[in-house]
Amino acid sequence: MSIQLEPRQSGSRRLPGLLIVCTLAVLLSPAGENWKRKPVDSFPLSHYPMFSAKRAETYSAQTIYGIDSSGKKTVLPYRFAGTGGFNSVRRQLRVHVREKRADGLCSDVAARVSRSRRREHAGIREIRIATQTHNVGAFFAGERTPLSEKVHAVCEAPPRRAANESADNHLTLEAKDQPWSSN
After folding, report:
1. Sequence-distant (≥ 6) Cβ neighbours of residue 128 within 8 angstroms
2. CA dihedral sign, ordered 73, 79, 83, 89
3. Does a structural domain hold residue 173?
4. What are the C-alpha distances in Å from 176 to residues 43, 93, 103, 168, 171?
């Protein structure tokens, strides 16, 4: 008994190959935008200009930081300034500064700092909202000193309760005032 193989039809191999070539051409076509004088970016096919565009040497951004009694600056978590993710809060902060409402936000942040349980926030006495300009290369190399800074708001941070004034002391005081207390 012999097995005979049928000859393959030539079109059955060409179709998948043609589909692969067409798919690759469509996916790679946005790369040509990089060499155009005025590239056009579009969804869903993109040449990712956010990664390939030339960047400025400096970058300005709003920031919130606290200063303790020794003058040490501590950058505060973005969550102290608003709700949402980092980029959302960053936009909210920019709007507060642009609309000259940074003083109100400063007071809100100061109240949150005074309630913070984090050790690095314990000595903060002053809150500042500022726009800082940094050299991008130097910043990512570890240099955190800004090239320039414009302060939009300054406010005092209410003193934080000392660590020994915890809930234990509060409970002890409450127990003395209760009718079932033996004191």
Report:
1. 64, 65, 66, 67, 106, 151, 153, 154
2. positive
3. no
4. 68, 46, 42, 13, 9
The position carrying tokens 């984090």 is 118
What confidence tens digit (pLDDT) does each residue in 24-40 have? 988 888 777 778 888 77
3-state SS track over 110-148: HHHHHHCCCHHHCCEEEEEEEEEEEEHHHHHCCCCCCCE
Sorting pLDDT into bands at 50, 70 and 90, what band is 45?
confident
Compute the distance between CA of residue 80 and CA of residue 151 in angstroms, rounded to an integer.
18
84 located within any domain: yes
62 within a domain of the structure (yes/no): yes
Tokens 């570890």 label which residue?
A: 142
Structural domain range at position 93: 58-156
* 149: three-class secondary structure by DSSP: strand
Domain count for the chain: 1
For 94-144, the pLDDT digits (tens) are 999 999 999 999 999 999 999 999 999 999 999 999 999 999 999 999 999
Q: Is residue 4 part of a domain?
A: no
Residue 158: Cβ within 10 Å count: 13
Tokens encoding 119: 């050790």
